[in-house]
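Quick check before the chapter quiz. The format below is the same one you will see on the exam, so make sure you can read both the input and the output lines.
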Amino acid sequence: MVRVFSVALLSLAAVAGAASAAASLGVATNVSRPALRVDARGNAEVNWSAGGTRRYLLIPRLGQVFPGRRLGGADVSRTTNAVSIPFREAVRRTPDGRYWALQAWRVQPDGPVELRFSRWRGSPTQVVLGAVDPSTNGYVVSGRATFAGQPVPVWSRTPEGKRVRSYAYIDRMTGSGWRRVGGVAVRADGTFSRFVRVTGRPVFRAVLRGPNVGASWAPDAASRPFAAS
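Here is the expected output.
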């Protein structure tokens, strides 16, 4: 089913001029039939349908992105199931061993579904809830976030060079779906912990936008649901 088109590009002014050292990249919102192609030079093309039109975004190996432009060379990527990531729309692999992905999810609790692009090597971003401990009037939710087997960095840089803190966001399952209850800064060892004031025996998850690590745009991550005991 075609979703109503909302925005052609997320914060295009911010991503213009982006270097390869940036986190997962917001591409568009409320789209349908997204697809991904990559050429032998490491340039990627994302395309999708919106408002009855096929739209394109060229993401070079380095430098600014180009709305409306397409790959000049052949697609050398292949669909792969070698890695598992949440919110998957497409995951592809190129002969040099890199992974390329599109994910679609509601990043802001009341916001639109965002289509996001990432590229990386090795293990994807992972976030795990390790404990939900009862406390006075609620629970302490704890976990750990990693990328390529290492703790996610405390800070990442946006494409325009702004330093942003890495945060894990805690969601609670309700009758209408997941509800955001708050965020918490990730520590240097990748761990995080947050008190949630709630009664009953809730079910939680943690979500995390992929960080900037070297030349990787790391994919976004979500933990498995964790039920309070």
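If your answer matched, good. Helices lie at 12-15.
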